[in-house]
Design a protein that fits this description.
The longest helix has 18 residues, at 348-365. The chain is of the alpha/beta class. The protein has two domains: 17-273, Alpha-Beta Barrel (TIM Barrel), CATH 3.20.20; 290-380, no CATH class. It has 14 helices and ten strands. 42% of the residues lie in helices and 12% in strands. Helix 1 (36-49) packs antiparallel against helix 10, helix 7 (181-192) packs parallel to helix 8 (210-219) and helix 11 (294-302) crosses helix 12.
Length: 387
């Protein structure tokens, strides 16, 4: 077994809170439809990890009504943020859930105002939001103002919302993935100077930068993050929860979240959503701690710090050396001798012959070698068990 020898991470510790949007945004992914039992299991996982708020839809359907009622019976109303459109009928349904938070989603970019809201003027939009939040506050709930498509909105117009709208927190929505990490940092640094209210990130992943944008915004002062398990969401999805949490822990020294069960959660989400996880997906992929390359095998066996981004043990895993087309002598000796208990040739030429045969097997079979393959290799070369 390889042993951990330390971790180099960031030195900065941040106070950041997290909203799980899987049961709202994740449900919008094509073909995803959780059962109530599956949704309750996701909430159970969230609580185990230490997620601060759980976002759900206003109960538009029987499923959503059954879910929020079940969560209320579990005493979790204070953990819920119920997403709604800026419509009075939505508010009435949301208020019946008895959730502590209601989210009001409203697009503020000029494109949304012109085409989605039929030419609504900026000042008219602000008035609608003022009235909505006053109404919700009169019913004793906290409001999370979701500024849809805000990264395409006029920045000064967004500042008007931050300064004048009396919400408890604001969600900055990169609805169409227009941000880049440097822009996300500079933009958020500008926004946090405009308000003392918390700003939450909700960034989409169309160009694969949702995590980078999210972490950049947090470094600039965003104090809440919205993410979804396995990145489920519209189109290419959102910032994957598991990647955000692991980055917070390993690079920013945020230790308040329990990351040990992340891989278990991701496998569950993949199963119930019907969305398989790629073998090399960060945090969750089957083979992210599997090492075939000879150069990397040799480095890890000498000292894990040579090629270790973070200790797999924090996710309940360990490194695994496998023999494939790109493996080298160090990896082969480790597997055959130290793991399987066979003597290997001391003659360099014979060891090279053994390695070349193993690599040819792997190339022909288009995979790394299984235990059965390795036993076949042992038999072919008449290797003996160590005494």
């Amino acid at each position: 077994m390889l042993e951990a020898k330390g971790l180099q991470g960031g030195s900065q510790s941040l106070d950041v809170k997290v909203v799980d949007s899987t049961l709202r945004e994740g449900e919008q992914a094509p073909g995803v439809a959780f059962t109530v039992e599956e949704a309750l299991k996701i909430v159970e996982f969230d609580l185990d990890v230490g997620i601060d708020l759980i976002e759900v839809f206003t109960p538009y359907s029987e499923y959503e009504l059954e879910l929020v009622n079940a969560l209320r019976r579990e005493g979790l109303s204070s953990k819920l943020v119920v997403w709604s459109r800026l419509r009075r009928e939505d508010f009435e349904l949301a208020l019946k859930t008895e959730a502590s938070w209601i989210a009001v989603s409203f697009g503020i970019s000029d494109i949304h105002l012109k085409y989605k809201f039929n030419g609504l003027r900026r000042e008219e939009a602000l008035m609608k939001v003022f009235e909505a939040i006053d109404y919700l506050h009169s019913h004793g709930v906290k409001v999370s103002m979701h500024l849809e498509d805000s990264t395409r909105a006029d920045l000064n117009y967004m500042v008007e919302f931050l300064k004048n709208v009396n919400a408890e927190k604001f969600r900055d929505c990169d609805t169409l993935s227009v941000l880049l990490p440097p822009l996300a940092f500079e933009r958020m640094r500008f926004l946090v100077k405009a308000t003392d209210k918390p700003i939450e990130t909700h960034y989409h992943n169309d160009l694969g930068m949702a995590v980078g944008n999210t972490i950049s915004a947090v470094l600039a002062g965003a104090s809440w993050i919205s993410a979804t398990w396995n990145g489920l969401g519209e189109r290419a999805g959102n910032a994957p929860m598991e990647e955000v949490l692991l980055t917070l822990k390993t690079r920013l020294n945020v230790d308040r979240f329990n990351v040990k069960p992340l891989r278990t959660i991701c496998r569950f989400i993949a199963e119930v959503s019907g969305s398989p996880i790629s073998r090399n997906k960060p945090v969750a992929g089957l083979d992210i701690f599997t090492v075939e390359s000879g150069i990397h095998q040799d480095g890890l066996l000498k000292d894990r710090r040579v090629y270790e981004p973070y200790p797999p043990e924090i996710l309940g895993e360990s490194w695994r050396i496998v023999i494939g087309d790109s493996s080298g002598r160090s990896g082969l000796v480790h597997v055959l001798n130290h793991e399987m208990g066979y003597d290997v040739p001391e003659d360099p030429d014979k060891l090279t012959e053994l390695l070349m045969y193993a690599r040819a097997m792997a190339r022909m079979r288009k995979r790394y070698l299984s235990l059965e393959d390795l036993e076949e290799l042992v038999e072919k070369f008449s290797l003996k068990k160590k005494i």
